[in-house]
Amino acid sequence: MAMDGGSEDSLYTVLGVAETATADEIKRAYYQLVRQVRPDADPKTYHTFQNAGVVLSDPRKRREYDQLRDAGRRVEVLTDQAAAAVASDPQKAFGLLKAAVEIAPDAPRPRLLLAHVLTRLNDFMGAEKQYRHLLKERPFDETLMYRFARCLFVQERYDDAERVLGGAVRLNPRYHDAHILLGRIYEKSGQFGAAIYALEKSIENDGAEDYADFDALLRLLTLHLRMENGAEAESTAQRIMAVLPAPNTPDPTRQCERAAKRMLDRARELVSEDAVITVRALAALGARLPNGTPETAQAFAEVSRDARLFAEAKHLQEDHLAPPALKRLAEGLYLNRNLPESERAARKREVTDALHEAVTTNAAKIQNVLEYIKREYPFFSAEQGALLSETAARAVRRLAINGESSSNMGNAADLPPGGIAPVESPEAALPASRKGFMGWFKGKK
Question: Where along the chain do its domains lie?
Answer without folding.
Answer: 327-437
